[in-house]
Amino acid sequence: MKGKTHAGIGAITFFCICDKLPGKFSYIGLIIVMIASLVPDIDHPKSLINKYILPFKNKKTKTVVYLCLALVVLWFDYLYVGEPALKALGISLIFIAVSSHRNGLSHSLGGLIVFTLISGYLGNVYNIPFIVYYFMIGYGMHLLCDMFTKMGIPLFYPFIRRKYKFPLTYKVSSKSGNLFEDFLMIMGIVYTIYRLPGIL
């Protein structure tokens, strides 16, 4: 699924359930959900996030950049901070560096747990209430949506490497796949317009 579709579905899901969340609707919550919707694809060198991080969009550059980031984070944590969340961030950056797209940590429940813990820590440090809820919605919807694609996802990585997908799937970037994603976005926009007056 394309990055813009993931972000859109994350936002639509947030609009659907925000009145049931502890923090109700907030613009910060919406932004966090959309960012979290893009995080699992960080293992792809041409993802929307890596477009702004990597100088060259290939696997070798992704591996080198994320390994360097991991070393910086772990070294900084060792020398100055000593926080479990930074250790988790450093370790997850290593997993991202060595993972190929949809074959590693970022597209698994383990990735959801690790990144949610990190977001929770950042929420405590920067006083962003309910960030864990927002992050889990965005990240969880990304995993759920990718289970509708033919590639599937390694849901229980690293314990089980098998990829899981729903019985009905589509091929990403195919003509029918693009039409399906466009249809989802149009329906989502219509629903959002309908919901907005009751939320804002």
UniProtKB/TrEMBL annotation:
Lineage: superkingdom: Bacteria
Keywords for this protein: Hydrolase, Membrane, Transmembrane, Transmembrane helix
Record field: transmembrane: 25-42, 63-80, 112-135, 141-159, 179-197
Alphabetized GO MF terms: hydrolase activity
Protein name per UniProt: Metal-dependent hydrolase
Xref: PANTHER family: INNER MEMBRANE PROTEIN YBCI-RELATED
Classification of source organism: Bacteria, Bacillati, Bacillota, Clostridia, Eubacteriales
